[in-house]
Amino acid sequence: MKQISLFLLILLISSSIFGWSLMERQAIGNYVQSMSARSAAMGGACTAWSYGVADLTHNPAGLTRLQHVTGMEMSVAIMQVEERRSIALYNFFDSYVDEGTYAVNTNYFADYSGGIYYTFRTGNLSWGTAFLFRPVFTYDCYYEEEVRTDSGSDNNEYPYSIAINTIDGVGTLYANSLLLSGAASDFPFNSNLSAGIMVSRYFGNHKLNSAIEWTEQSQSVTSDFVLPDYHQNMDRDLSGTGFKLGLQADINERVACGFAFEPKVEITIEQSFNGVSVSDSKTWLPTRFRAGITYRPRNIMQTFVNFDVERINWSDVSDSYKDSYVWYMGVEHQVVRALPLRLGFRYETTPIDDSIDIPTITGGSGFQLLDKVNIDFAVEYSARKYRIMDLFPDSYYNDTNYADDPAYVSQFWQEAKRDRGWDNADKVTENFVKVTTTIGFNW
Fold it and tell me: How does the average pLDDT of the chain come out, rounded?
């Protein structure tokens, strides 16, 4: 019993910062890729050319290249996450039969952001400042599974539920960011060069509740003793300060390039477990390097073609994590006047296992609602499969562990339950659908 409780406590602590997908519980969490619907529809590629205020979080140098003098944006993103967990099924002769799904969870999460900017010119120099509020990592997740006995399964009877397992996480790491940017036109070779800096104050809260609750039916079957419920609660306050540098330059009238660098950020964590405060700890947001290029062909209708690549040094967070790369590509083409078609693709690997990739296809459009108001929207779809250990150890449901009578015979299982190893790990299939809408006001 003590070993089981220790295992579950370690599981809770190791899930310190995660979101959406339960696999990221071991890493820093789910990074909010883009809150700009226009660039999100193009795969998130916006390092060399910024399309709105939200894009400045990826490269602050784009501030002075925005089309208007003053502007404000608000974005809302809704994410649907479907997760299916299955295990291998074997027949009486220990021959593999198929994968059996034992838990399906579909959840919806929302994020929002906003920003305002102002630019002005002095001769051939342009200057700008902006303020942004944005989510950086989200910790929202919910998982529920039923544990059923194998009693009666040989007689085609539906086994009854003996326990309900849940993992419930809520919270977001936000950032308030101040941006400053300057640009020079008519630079050597008749090009424009801009530079920018973004200083961010990170803050947020993360709550995580993990529970195993025995059902009334299971308690009635073992009426001679009480089956112990399991509850673990974690509460963390997060804070830190960081900055990002960016450059954008015109190579010629058709091609522009951009670069951005963000050093690792120290995040201070004030935490408590089950209501008891423990010593503060620290973690890191990883160093990020990003570069991109934009091509504008000589079309009658305006077209942008964007390519980005980003390196994320997850080894800053832990030596057990692998540095990862993210590839972005997208295109925007004006199909008819004032009606753009946007398509994109993003490919990224995970820090836990670089063999687990996340391909994402994107699309969207936008329109001008009023003279100074425009609306953009984007849809993103991602999917991945991987194998991982069971979230809750099977041995916890072995009722013989809790009986005082050594002659007690399990009322739930024909054979004693043992924890599954990597030879029969969970197979997880995840599908992500994200819809982002941005409304912009420009003067």
Answer: 87
**Distance separating alpha carbons of residues 294 and 314, to the nearest angstrom:** 27
For residues 50 and 194, what is the distance between their CA atoms, to the nearest angstrom? Answer: 12
Residue 420 in 3-state DSSP? coil
Q: Looking up tokens 């390519």, which residue turns up?
A: 307
Contact 376, 41 (CB under 8 A): yes
Q: What is the DSSP letter of 3?
A: H
CB contact at 8 A, 442 and 70: yes
Instruction: Measure the CA–CA gap between 41 and 342, rounded to whole angstroms.
Output: 6
CB under 8 Å to 77, separation ≥6 — which residues?
32, 35, 110, 111, 112, 434, 435, 436, 437
Q: How confident is the model at residue 134 (pLDDT cuts 50, 70, 90)?
A: very high
Beta strands in 215-297 (DSSP E): 230-250, 255-262, 265-273, 276-277, 281-285, 287-295
Gap between the Cα atoms of 437 and 112, Å rounded: 10
Residue of 307, 352, 364 whose CA lies nearest to 330? 307
Q: What is the pLDDT of residue 21?
A: 61
Q: How many domains does the chain have?
A: 1
For the chain, what is the radius of gyration of the CA atoms? 26
Give 186 or 1, the one with higher predicted confidence. 186
Exposure b/e, 323-338, CB count within 10 A at least 16 = b: ebebbbbbbbeeeeee
Handedness of CA 10, 11, 12, 16 (dihedral sign): positive
Q: How far apart are CA 51 and CA 190, in angstroms?
A: 22
Phi, psi of 230 (to 5 degrees): -125, 130
- Mean pLDDT across 134-162: 83
**pLDDT one-digit tens code per residue, 43-101:** 999 999 998 899 999 999 999 888 889 999 999 999 999 999 998 877 666 666 778 88
Residue 183 structure tokens: 């640009």
Residues 343 and 42 sit within 8 Å (Cβ to Cβ): yes
Task: Specify the pTM.
Answer: 0.88
Q: Identify the domain containing residue 34 by its residue range.
A: 2-442
For 28-187, where are the E strands, in sequence order? 30-31, 70-90, 96-122, 125-138, 141-148, 161-187
Q: What is the pLDDT of residue 4?
A: 41
The two structure tokens encoding residue 114: 């906003």
- Binned at pLDDT 50, 70 and 90, residue 340 comes out as very high
- Overall average pLDDT of the 296-306 stretch: 88
CATH number for 311: 2.40.160.60
Tell me what pLDDT residue 360 has. Answer: 96
Closest of 90, 1, 51 to residue 404, by C-alpha: 1
Identify each DSSP E strand in 371-442 by its residue range. 373-388, 426-442
